[in-house]
Amino acid sequence: MKTVKYLLAEDQMPTAWYNIQADLPTPPPPVLHPGTGQPIGPQDLAPLFPMALIMQEVSTERFIEIPEEVQTIYRQWRPTPLFRARRLEQALDTPARIYYKYEGVSPAGSHKPNTAVAQAYYNQQEGVKRLVTETGAGQWGSSLAMAGAFFGIEVLVFMVKVSYQQKPYRRALMEAYGARVVASPSEETNAGRAILAEHPDSTGSLGIAISEAVEVAAQDPEAKYSLGSVLNHVLLHQTVIGEEALAQMEMAGDYPDIIVGCTGGGSNFSGISFPFIGKKLRGERNVRVVAVEPAACPSMTRGKYAYDFGDTAKLTPLVKMHTLGHDFVPPGIHAGGLRYHGMAPLVSHLLELGVIEAINVQQLETFAAGIQFARAEGIIPAPEANHAVAGAIREALRCKEEGVSRAILFNLCGHGHFDMQAYTDYMAGKLRDYEYSEKEVAMALAGLPSVE
Ligand SMILES: Cc1ncc(COP(=O)(O)O)c(C=O)c1O
Questions:
Q1: Over the stretch 41-74, which tens digit does the pLDDT of each residue have?
Q2: Of 206, 227, 248, at which residue does a domain stop?
Q3: Rounded distance, CA 273 to CA 408, Å?
Q4: How far, in Å, is the centroid of ligand 1 from the Cα of 142?
Q5: Which atom of ligand 1 is nearest to the CA of 338?
Q6: Strand pairing of 82-84 and 97-102?
Q7: Is residue 391 within 8 Å of residue 361, measured between CB atoms?
Q8: Whose CA is nearest to atom 15 of ligand 1?
Q9: What's the CATH code of the domain at 407?
Q10: What is the pLDDT of residues 4-41, one digit of tens each?
């Protein structure tokens, strides 16, 4: 019998997250205070985050225990399956061994609940009543809305306007979980009003929605801010994916030669790859790791490694990352969750160190890959996940060209059940590729703060 799914029992679920900061050859550059330009301390972040998460942000412990309450909720859908994509291999006629970890089995439909549940737990422990956040595609907002419902915390979501319009059912899901959803830019914040005054037709961006959420959270003593990607603690919580995948690859009697993940802010990519990269950094086992980003939002492949703000209104601390500039507004491509101007500092640092690689892929190639995948494997991927599928297919076809069999592991980070409008548009020939000119990239980078 040829195994298709490698399944772990509930009691085989990892009980600790893996912290890559323990294994880095050099630490990432410090986070700076936007006013003083000096490294920030835990107290500077206290208005926005509970102390437990701030301490995880700077921890260098290799493993951090997953609280029992979080493990209990994880078991609603974890461990998630690892598939051997035998039917896709056949369709591609490739000697490659393709594996994918499927995070779309979570109730919200993606990997995002892995951190949403943890964040809601630590906030509840510290008495927080409300969480304020932003969402691009709606996956993150749905996940935090669900986690808020589990822990009795109110959730307010600023949803990027273009997604709010494109994805009414994502909004309905968030509301069903009990969250309030506001289209961003909105009239509810100074940041939103300022953008609307200048650009009344603004379709929004993650950078703008973050500004709105941070502003509301900072002004409400009972509220905190929650971010679905980019920060070290978010990446940490996602490592449960890769920890499970390590055990599942062992069940398969195999080990990945290549790991592929899509990158918006970097969390699902880090989740699947960091436990394997840890082994590489410790000299135990080598692996090639490829991050795939949209050509329409190419922070790692065409951006600059520089200090920048995480948001448009410059309310956040300055972090060193690959960035297209905090006032970059990407075109309205369908992979909403990948349209962030920056990259997680830890992922950026690994790219600078040469530990990982990055490529960008055009929208049409990603949808073609997603459809080929769906016809072979049955699962319709989220448009974000299509970038990973496209990256994996490229590698599998390279194996065919070279006549070698490599093991390729990719993260199928979410399903596309709420994204069918995007597929409809693709099949109707309405989607376009988007090529940035050098001039546009330079313009977007012109507003970077001067720090060095
Ligand atoms: C399904 C899915 N994949 C990927 C992303 C991108 O985020 P990250 O790079 O943090 O995984 C998102 C973000 O909303 C998402 O919804």
A1: 999 999 999 999 999 999 999 999 999 999 999 9
A2: 227
A3: 12
A4: 12
A5: 6
A6: antiparallel
A7: yes
A8: 337
A9: 3.40.50.1100
A10: 999 999 999 999 999 999 999 999 999 999 888 999 99
